[in-house]
Amino acid sequence: MSKLKIPVQTVHSGILQENAVMLGDKSMKRLKIPANGTIQLTFGSFRQEVTVIPVPKSDSLRVSEALGRRLGLRQRLMLNVSYSSGSRILRLGPIIGVLVSRDHPEQPERVFGQITMFCRELTNACHAQGAYVYFFTPEALESRSTTIQGWVYDEGWRKLSLPVADVINNRLTTRKVENKPSVQHFLADVKSRYGTHFFNEKFLDKTEVFEALAQDPALQRYLPESHALNGFAILKRMCSSYPSVFLKPVRGSLGKGILRISREEGGSYRLLSTTPMGTRKQSYPTLAKLFSSIGPKMKTTRFQIQQGLSLMELGRRPVDFRALVQKNGTGKWGVTSIVARTAGSNHFVSNLARGGTLSTVREAIAKSSLPAGVKESTQIQLPRAALAIARGVETYIPAHFGELGIDLALDQSGRIWLLEVNSKPSKNDNTPLNDQKIRPSVKQMILYCRYLAGL
After folding, report:
1. pTM greater than 0.85 (yes/no)
2. CB–CB of 157/108 below 8 Å?
3. Which CATH number is 2-93's, of 2.40.170.20, 2.40.30.170, 2.40.40.20, 1.20.1250.20?
4. Mean pLDDT of residues grouped by 10 in the chain (455 residues)?
5. Taking the chain, what is the end-to-end CA distance rounded to the nearest angstrom?
6. CATH architecture of 311-423
7. What angle do CA 364, 370, 373 make, to 5 degrees?
């Protein structure tokens, strides 16, 4: 199979029929395409037999305006092309589809709300790598069709009828939307009909992750003791084993709803809870009284109970580390970035949504009170732990993931612990968004999409 990256553009339909394309003769020779022969042109789910007309002294692929509309091409683009002489298939792309929760057509500058700049950045990165990206919502899936109404950026956001993508990245932000029958039926259908690849296909539950990773002896050293909170007995046992425990919503995110329970002198128990305004503190004379106070929460929310850790601190504020682990252009896991997150004042969780602040791993560890020898080894061990955990998730959880946000912590002796694995990592967590600069995390995602599509 021969591959190239060439300009693709539309020409007036009076010049070129819809079932023909014009291609520079040099490109035809490099791709080994026979002149004036009939081949199949594919772009995502789009398929059409076309005649290839050679054009001297040209490096571009030209299609008619009518064919361009069906392909979703309105502007001159650089796209990867590959040709297989055995099957006579000329492929363009890949097309990458990003499934997002909602759009705001009434806000042309912020069509996708907070992630609009990320969508622009991804579009720019795709142009640079010869890929084509569009964004679509679950509403586009309500009617069964061979095309999708998707958003593309072309001097402004516009909605077009587009082929089903080669690769789809799931960026849905709620389980409720993800589990809609229309979404699940669509994904099953395009996988079977077109061989579409779909990654980050589901949310992860905290209990599911810890139970899965516990199957691997090499990963057990990273796992604080964790259980599903299914009654008073497990709370009592954990509180007698550890000075503090955390109760985390199994399906929570952004630090919402986390509770911390600790024993106080005199036998009473302190309950700390996260609120938008800071930490709420309550005291209970017995553990049974505390348990009855959280009873109403347990009726609506499933909790994981986890061993409390004495975390590394900066200025008496706990620190943890977010590693972004992604598949690369050869389908292998790699660590794209790790940042340190320090909890905000009056908070015991480090999420940016709760006033946490970012710094580099080197800066955070240098300012810590960890022993000197531990400081050096930690900077090597953190990425190793993140990679091992990502491979463990892939091995023990039956779903396709292309990127994971892995939250790690160091205790005050320098031991590494896993806090959480997030299958929908934020795109604003590692480096600031920038109009000109394309972040490594975005480039890596496209390389993985190209690997999956074989383009």
Report:
1. yes
2. yes
3. 2.40.40.20
4. 87 85 91 88 95 90 92 89 93 96 92 92 94 95 81 92 96 91 91 94 91 96 94 94 92 76 90 79 93 89 91 86 95 95 63 64 86 84 97 96 95 92 73 64 96 95
5. 10
6. 2-Layer Sandwich (3.30)
7. 105
